[in-house]
Design brief:
3 domains; mainly beta; Immunoglobulin-like; single chain; 7-stranded mixed β-sheet
């Protein structure tokens, strides 16, 4: 036993031990040696504790005459020792054990003990400060929309926690990393951005005295709908010919116009400024040319558009040649190609 008295605090997982040493029947503590996992620490100790766990602390004075009363106290972050609140007391005992149920509201709370066996004489231990670890989270996100060519920004709605460390990233549904900050920013939205985006938060928590580090992950997502103007993907016959096609006399020919747009488009197929077929709010239109003859030769046009074309309709042409057979004044049959504005 040292004459000046010592106070020893030993930290094991979620366990703190206080030792008050008496000299000549008084509890006089001049210095404190704090040991944590074999390492001596001077001053106050911050202890990492997971929320809803139990911190066990022991306060042990040396023998006294009479045995001392031991009180446990706490005071909140920002307060001082003079604002301490009594949270437990043991009378005339050689040891006092505190089992303290923690919550995230205890973050920054300091805990210590006081021993006394004489009137108006008390010895106060050093204190531990609780750093309550609890995981962060992400609030729900709503689906959103943007117009092609515009800028888009969205903030990942983080719900703060108190982990040892954390990292954040935005990923697209094709697993491409879009950002490593809370803000996802797209400077020039394209129709290829019409997809789901996920905010992923990875965190680590390591309680004091623990050899293992808890790693967790939370994520939330939203779907970005991109609105864009109509473009014509293809304008073809049933055998997938495009541009210029040749059909046989009396064949049945199917002309199909396919567009890409969001929202859907109003589509028309015209010949000689006459509407042959039309449809509203669709991405495909088909016209059936039955028993093709020379009068069907010419240029067919597909028009398509939605509100994002702003009146500038998308268009594509398909030139049809009809292979006709004529009996000209008892001459042998001849194969002739008839095209627009060409007469044979």
């Amino acid at each position: 036993m040292q004459e000046d008295g010592t106070l020893l605090e030993k930290v094991v997982p979620n366990t703190i031990r206080f030792l008050v040493v008496e000299t000549h029947q008084t509890f006089q503590v001049n210095t404190l040696t704090l040991e944590h996992k074999g390492r001596v620490i001077t001053g106050e100790e911050i202890v990492n504790v997971k929320e809803n766990s139990v911190v066990t602390a022991e306060c042990t004075p040396s023998s006294g005459r009479p045995p001392p009363d031991i009180e446990w106290f706490r005071y909140s972050n920002g307060s001082t020792l003079s604002d301490k609140i009594l949270i437990g007391k043991v009378r005339a005992s050689s040891i006092a054990v505190l089992r303290y149920n923690t919550s995230r509201d205890d973050n920054g709370v300091s805990i210590g003990c006081v021993a006394s066996n004489r009137r108006n004489f008390k010895v106060t231990s050093k204190t531990i400060s609780l750093n309550i670890l609890y995981p962060p989270d992400i609030d729900e996100m709503k689906n959103d929309s943007a117009v092609e060519g515009s800028a888009f920004r969205i903030l990942c709605p983080l719900l703060p926690g108190n982990p040892t460390s954390q990292t954040l990233q935005w990923k697209s549904e094709i697993n491409y990393t879009m950002a490593t900050t809370a803000v996802l920013s797209i400077s020039n939205v394209s129709r290829n951005n019409n997809m789901m985006f996920i905010c992923i938060l990875t965190y680590k928590m390591k309680p004091t005295g623990s050899d293992t580090e808890e790693v967790g992950e939370v994520s939330k997502h939203f779907y970005l709908t991109v609105f864009y103007r109509t473009v014509i993907s293809n304008f073809t016959t049933n055998d997938l010919q495009t541009g210029t096609v040749v059909v046989n006399y009396y064949d049945t020919v199917q002309l199909t116009c396919v567009v890409d747009s969001n929202p859907d488009s109003n589509i028309s197929i015209l010949f000689n400024e006459t509407i042959l077929e039309q449809i509203a709010k669709s991405k495909r239109l088909t016209f059936n040319m039955k028993k093709a003859d020379c009068s069907n030769a010419g240029v067919y046009t597909c028009f398509g558009g939605n509100e994002y074309n702003y009146g500038n309709m998308a268009r594509a042409n398909l030139t049809v040649f009809v292979k006709c057979e004529y009996n000209c004044f008892n001459t042998s049959l001849q194969n002739m190609y008839v095209s627009p504005h060409v007469f044979v």
